[in-house]
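Tutorial handout. Part one gives the primary structure; part two gives the three-dimensional structure as C-alpha cells.
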Amino acid sequence: MENEILLVDDEKDIREILCLALVDMGYTVRQAENGVEALRIFKETQPPLVLTDIKMPGMDGIELLQKIKRENPEVEVVMITGHGDMDLAIKSLKFEATDFITKPINVDALEISLQRAQDKILIRKQLKEYTESLERLIQEKTELQDHLSSLGLMISSISHGIKGLLTGLDGGMYLLDSGLAQKDQGRINEGWDAVKQMVKRIRKMVLDILFYAKERDLKWERINALSFAEEIARVLEPKLADHDIEFDKKFDRKIGEFEVDAGYIHSALFNILDNAVDACALDKKNKAPKISFCVGQDEDYIDFEVIDNGIGMDPETQAKIFTPFFSAKGEKGTGLGLFIANKITEQHGGHISVKSTLGKGTRFRIRIPKIMPQAVKRKSKKMAHG
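Part two.
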C-alpha cells in the first residue's frame, strides 16, 4: 500500500516515461489521463501518493489536489509544472501539496521529491502509532489506579469488618470463659450463643468476599423470568415461615424471557429478599410483618420489586447501603450483600433504586434489560476481571 502511486497526466508519452521511472523506483503505478478519471480511481483505491500535472483540460491539477485533500487529508500529492507555471506551483503548496517538480522532469529530482513524501507518510504513521500507544498507556494507568484505589478501599473495609467480628467473637469467648470459671450456666449459654452468631457471620462474610473476589466471565443465557422468580420465592419461603412473615407474590403471568447470568442474578435478588426478611424480623413491634415480591415488565426491561413493612431506613443509612461492609442490620450483617447485589445488577446493565421510611418499611426496585447489548457484555467482562 505504501508503494502505490497514482500518476495523472493528459499526455500519454509523459505518462509512459514516468511510469517506467516509477516502476524502477519500486512503485506500483496506477494511471489516469485527466482529473475526473484520477478522482474516480483515487476514491476506489485510496493510494497514499499522487503525482499529477497541474495544467490539464477540464479538471486541472489544483482542483484535483483540493478534492483529494477533502477526501483524505493525509494523502501526499506532488505537482508537476512547467517553467512558466511557477505561480500555480506555489499556489498548490497553499492547498497542502507536498512538493512540486518542473518539466522537463529530472528523474533524480523526482525520486528525492517522492522520498520526502514517503518520509512524511512514515512520520505520520509513526506519530499515530506513538499516540495510540500513549493513549493505551494512559488508559491502562488510569485503570490500574482505579483498581488499586478499589483494592485499597476493599482491604481497608475488610480489615474494619473483620476487626468488628473478632471483637464480637472475643466478647463471646470472654462470656464463655467466665461462665465456665464461675460455673454460671446462663453466662455459658449467653457466651456460646454469641460465639455461634459470630462464627455464622464470619462464615457468611468469607463466602461473600469469595463471591465478590472470584474472577469469571458472566455466563449469559435466556431464561424464563416467571419460572426464575418462582424458584427464588421457593428458596426463601422456609425462612419466611420461621419468622411468621406474610409473603405476597405478584407475578405477571405473561412475562417472558430475559438474558442474564442466572446464578449471579439469583444471588442479587435473594440478597435483597433476605434483607427484607431481616428488616421485618428486627421490627419487634410489628405484629403483622409482610413482604411483597412483584415481577413485571415493560418493552425493554424486567422489573423486580421487593417491598417490606419492616424497620425501614433513614436517609443517611439509605445513602450508604451499597457501600462495602456497611450494614443497616448492625452486628447481624456483613455489609456485603447489597454491595454485591448492586455490582451484579450493574454488570447486567441494570439499576437498583430504593425508597425507605424509618419505622414503616422499604421498597427495592431492580430493573434488568431483557436483551443484553454486546457493549454491556464487554463492559461486564472488564468489571468481572477489574
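Part three, for discussion. The domain at 4-105 is CATH 3.40.50.2300 (Rossmann fold). The CA atoms of residues 77 and 98 lie 5 Å apart.
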